[in-house]
Design goal:
Protein name: phosphoglycerate mutase (2,3-diphosphoglycerate-dependent)
Strand content: 5-15%
CATH topology: Rossmann fold
Number of domains: 1
Keywords: Glycolysis, Isomerase
Largest sheet: 5 strands, mixed
Number of helices: 8
Organism: Facklamia lactis
EC number: 5.4.2.11
Family: Belongs to the phosphoglycerate mutase family. BPG-dependent PGAM subfamily.
CATH class: Alpha Beta
Structural class: alpha/beta
Number of strands: 5
CATH architecture: 3-Layer(aba) Sandwich
């Protein structure tokens, strides 16, 4: 299986560097242009895509639809996968790092010192987020033919998890994986490996 990892187009909150994991917002004009750029790259480098998987949040669905409209994959379908949404930042949703630090300096310090053990106020822990995402992608991909080319349109945190889990790079951590908007990262997988990791 060929898995193409792509990040959704830019949003206004993205541009303002806000925490907005579970907030549902559209992509902006820059984001639309980025997705058209991505579509052109896919048209040149990928003769076929069999299915597009997407987070159910609007910014990913909208991005996937732009890809469909601007590529030569006439029969491709977009499948929304609920478990692939970004981490829920709880009460921090919609805020910038500076705003959070001003309102909750102690909690912010805890997060900075140990982000993988931190529970966002009324939100998710990193572990619950990771378990949710890997269960969702695992169960979805194991139902797709091993010979397929799959485009995954998703969020930065989700893409980092999937890349690190299925195609880790020696010496790289979660934060090191880059997914610039308007581009994609390709992973080649044997579908049978998905079940072997437990």
């Amino acid at each position: 299986m060929k898995l193409l990892l792509a990040r959704h187009g830019q949003t206004q909150m993205n541009q303002e560097s806000r925490f907005y994991g579970s907030l549902d917002c559209p992509i902006n004009q820059t984001g639309k242009d980025q997705m058209k750029e991505l579509a052109e790259k896919l048209r040149i480098t990928q003769p076929s895509v069999d299915i597009i998987l997407s987070s159910s949040l609007n910014r990913c669905v909208e991005s996937a639809e732009i890809i469909m409209e601007n590529t030569h994959y006439p029969s491709v379908k977009v499948k929304k996968v609920e478990g692939l949404s970004e981490i829920d930042f709880g009460k921090w949703e919609g805020l910038t790092a500076n705003e959070i630090e001003q309102k909750s300096p102690t909690l912010w310090k805890e997060y900075i010192e140990n982000p993988f053990a931190f529970c966002f106020p009324e939100g998710e822990t990193f572990l619950s987020f990771k378990d949710r995402v890997l269960l969702a992608i695992d169960s979805t991909l194991t139902s797709i033919s091993n010979q397929s080319t799959v485009l995954l349109m998703c969020h930065l945190g989700v893409l980092r998890l999937i890349k690190d889990y299925y195609d880790p790079m020696i010496g790289k951590s979660f934060w090191d994986y880059k997914f610039p908007q308007g581009d994609y990262v390709e992973i080649t997988l044997d579908i049978n490996d998905f079940n072997s990791k437990g």
